[in-house]
Structure formats: structure tokens, C-alpha cells
Amino acid sequence: MTQTLARYTQIVSIIGDILQVRVPNIGEGWVRPRLHDLAFTESQEGERSLAQIIRIDQEVVSLQVFSGTEGLSTAAGVRFIGRPMEVTCSANIMGRVFDSTGRALDIGPDLAQERKVPIGGPTVNPMRRVMPSKMIRTGVPMIDVFNSLVESQKIPVFSVAGEPYNALLARIAVQADADAVVFGGLGLIFDDYHFFRTQFEEAGVFARTVMFVNQASDPVIERLLVPDMALTVAERLAVEEGRRVLVLLTDMTAFADALKEVGISLERVPSNRGYMGDLYSQLARRYEKACDFKGAGSVTILSATTMPGDDITHPVPDNTGYITEGQFYLHGGLIDPFGSLSRLKQHVVGKVTREDHGQVMNAMVRFYAEASDAEHKESMAFELSEYDRRLLRFARLFRERFMDASVSMPLEQALGLCWQTMAECFTAEELLIKQSLVDKYFPESEAEGESSAQAGA
Fold first, then answer.
1. Which architecture characterizes domain 7-84 according to CATH?
2. Which residue, 127, 186, 187, 308, shows the most beta carbons closer than 10 Å to its own?
3. CA-CA distance, 294 to 271, in Å (whole number)?
4. Is there a common fold for 7-84 and 87-347?
5. How many other β-carbons are positioned within 10 Å of the β-carbon of residue 305?
6. Are 369 and 103 spatial neighbours (Cβ–Cβ below 8 Å)?
7. Residue 427: which of 396, 449, 400, 412 has the closest Cα?
8. What is the band of 355 on the pLDDT scale with cuts at 50, 70, 90?
9. C-alpha distance from residue 74 to each of 14, 44, 188, 261, 383 (Å)
10. The domain made up of 87-347 is a member of CATH 3.40.50.720
């Protein structure tokens, strides 16, 4: 063991949290450095810090030191462990909280003897994937009604700093009809970490939740491990236990910024706005873990992606949009129906949901689009028709009852409220919905009241 953990002392450079060491060609029986394997550094005082190999350039090996390089000098040493980063995967991790290196942050039982598996493996064989056909109900009407979340979907919440995206993700985690929730926090301030943990505990869902947290005070370099740890655990829960797993990641822009910092430390040539040229591949490696496994469970990924300056063309949301199947756009505390999109909703709308779902969804968005035109006319002081005024009323009710990110209700209740809202503003003939559905779901009392009001006018 002493021989295989040989100590290498030819330190080439220390830049930020990146240490480079020269490893000469070694003989048989020694641990050879491999990409993504673990190592540990030793200071002159004998203090050890865990590190990971991130690049091998002939004899020069670059390592990211998780606890930082403070206290290390060119007199330090490096020993290679010969295995990649691993995460604990067993039934006993449910209801537990871990840091970004997989160390437990709570006072639960010791997990040292539990099974561990390497993180960051390849994506699933396409032969194991099945066509998405099941819905994950979230209790958020702007998602359930207008952009349904489908099992095995990968979809981000596009937003800006200051928007309540963390509150939205926490509520979805609490209300979603998933078997397990795996939470990955990236660069969270302590208040946000405490908020998520408190929400899960108070709602009574902590027992089906696993948390991996990298706080803002932790080394930036550790941020890169959180998505891989969360997704590895999610895959094991889905494949081995057949669970429907929802993975929540916040914030993937912080993950991309960490990638940029590592790339700069390695003196790589940046691409767009300082981000590395492999940003798309790095994001895709994680998002493509979403899968509905044949004969097993599923992994669904919902992430928060902040847009600096509310710029949708920023490299992180821009690359994300090419990978994911749509997005939820959170702006001004509202989930915008025009900016939001679920490309897989057609697999479940009207098939595993109520028969009127598709037509109600289309009618509501059509009326809101017309209401936007009426609002433009009003802002420019044009004369408004009676129909325009009803559109303006509809827009106000639509924002209050559905678009507000704090609104929660079951899907069937939300569909009923859609019918009620349309009945308060329009006649049955104006809905342009199948007559059979109108006869079955349109509130007659509302329609009669509206007709009487119009007749009196």
C-alpha cells in the first residue's frame, strides 16, 4: 500500500484551487493517474486535502483541491488514490443532507459501511429508454395546465436574481407526486439552504428527500460535484428501486461559472463571454441523465437557471435551451405563458389528463394573447371596445389566479377555475371549444349571469 500511494513532490504551479504536479513515467504496480480519479495533497506539516484529477498533459497532472490550496507550497506532495469520487447509495440516505464531497452534514447514523458507487458515469443506453407518457403533477397551475411536466423530462426555470425561483422549486418538491426527490444546491447562501431544508421538514416530505448542498462559503471548485452526485443517486433509485425520482438543481448558472473559473485557472482559451468552448457538452452530460427506464423508474430534472441581466442570449440559458425540452420563464413573480414551453406536454395532455385539458389550455392562452393586444391599445390611449374591456378583465384574473408563482391547486381544480374564469368574461360561443365539452363543463349559472348583465347593459 505504501508503494502504490507513492508521494510526488515535483509541484509545477499552484493557481487558485488548481495544483499541477509532474508525474514521471512510473513502473508496474504503481497507481497511475487517470482523469477524474481522486488524490490528496500533503502540506509540509502533514495536513491532507482531497483533490480530483481534472487534466493530464503528458507528465503534468492538474488537480482541483476541494478545500482550497491555502497552506500549500511547492514543497507539498501528492498521492493518487486510484479511484474516482464516489457517493453513498443505499436506502439509508433518504432524509439525509450531504455536502458537495458526499460528507454527511447532519447527525444521522454513520454511513461509512454503506455501498458507494462512482459518480459521473456515462448516460443511459438508448435501448433502456422508453417514450415519455406519464405526468408529474406539481400543484402549480401554470405548469400542470399550460406546460405539463412529463416524467423523464429535463426542463429549466429561466429567471433572474431576486425572483422567487427557490420558493417555486421548494413548493414543487413538496407537492410533486414523485416517489423521491433529490435536491442539489449550488452556491446557496445559508438562508436559502435553511429555507429548503425547513420547507421539506415542515411539509413532512423530508423522509423521501436527499440533499446535496454546496454553500456559497464552500470552495467554488466543489460546486462541480453536486450535479453528478445528485444524478448518480437518482439513477440508482430509479433503476434499482423502480422509483419515480425528481431531481432539483439550483442554480446551474453557478455551476457554469465554476466551470469557467476552472478553465481560466488551467489557462484554457475561453469562448463566448469567458465561458469554455465545452459548456454545451458539460451541461448536456448532466441533463441527459433524465430518462424513463424500461422496466424500472424514471429520472426527471428540474433546474433553476438564472439569466444575468435578464439576457436570454447569455451562454448558459442559450446552451441550456438547445439541450432541454422547453423551459419555465419566471418574471416579476409570474410564470409567463408566452416565455414558457414544455415540448413533451402533448404526450400527456388529454391522454392521462381530463378530456377538456387541451382545449381549455389553448383557449386560455388565446384569450390572454388577445388581452395583451388590448393592453397595448389601452396604453396608447386608443378607444376600447366592450370586448376589449372583457379581455382586460380576463388578463387581470388570469394573472391573479394562475400566473402568480405562489398559486397552488390540483389540476382538476385548476381546469374548473379556467372554465369559471372564461365564463365570467366571455359567452360560450366566444370560447371556440367543442360544444360537447362546453355542454359538460361550462358553468351555466355564470353564463346566464353574464348574459343577463349584457342584456341589462
1. Beta Barrel (2.40)
2. 186
3. 39
4. no
5. 26
6. no
7. 449
8. very high
9. 8, 10, 33, 22, 77
10. no
Biggest alpha carbon distance in the chain?
Answer: 97
pLDDT tens, residue by residue, 92-120: 889 999 988 888 888 888 887 888 888 87
Specify whether the CB–CB gap between 316 and 253 falls below 8 A.
yes
Go through 368-391 and write b for each residue having 16 or more CB atoms within 10 A of its CB, e for each that does not: bebbeebeebeeeeeeeeeebebb
How far, in Å, are 245, 331, 456 from residue 91 at the CA level? 14, 38, 66
Domain extents for the chain?
7-84, 87-347, 357-456
CA distance 62 to 64: 7
Which residues have C-beta within 8 Å of that of residue 419, sequence separation ≥ 6? 356, 360, 441, 442, 443
Which among 10, 13, 80, 87 is positioned nearest to 48, based on CA atoms?
80
DSSP structure class, residue 314: S
Nearest in space to 154 (alpha carbons), one of 308, 328, 278, 297: 328
Spatial CA neighbour of 174 closest among 194, 202, 153, 193 = 202
**What is the three-class DSSP state of 11?**
strand
Contacts of 89 (CB under 8 A, 6+ apart): 114, 115, 116, 117, 232, 233, 236
Q: What's residue 457's pLDDT?
A: 40
Sort strands 37-42 and 48-57 into parallel, antiparallel or unpaired.
antiparallel
Distance CA 341, CA 155 (A): 9
**DSSP H/E element including 60:** strand 60-65
**Residue 447 has what pLDDT?**
44
pTM score over 0.85: yes
| Lowest mean pLDDT, pick from 112-121, 186-195, 359-368, 393-402 | 112-121
Q: Which residue from 235, 347, 232 is spatially nearest to 291, judged by alpha carbons?
A: 235
Q: Which amino acid is at 383?
A: E
For 21, list phi and psi in degrees, rounded to 5: -130, 145
CA torsion sign, 261 to 264 to 270 to 276? negative
pLDDT (tens digit per residue) in 64-79: 888 778 888 888 888 8
Handedness of CA 119, 125, 128, 134 (dihedral sign): positive
Q: Report the alpha-carbon angle 143-255-332, nearest 5.
A: 40
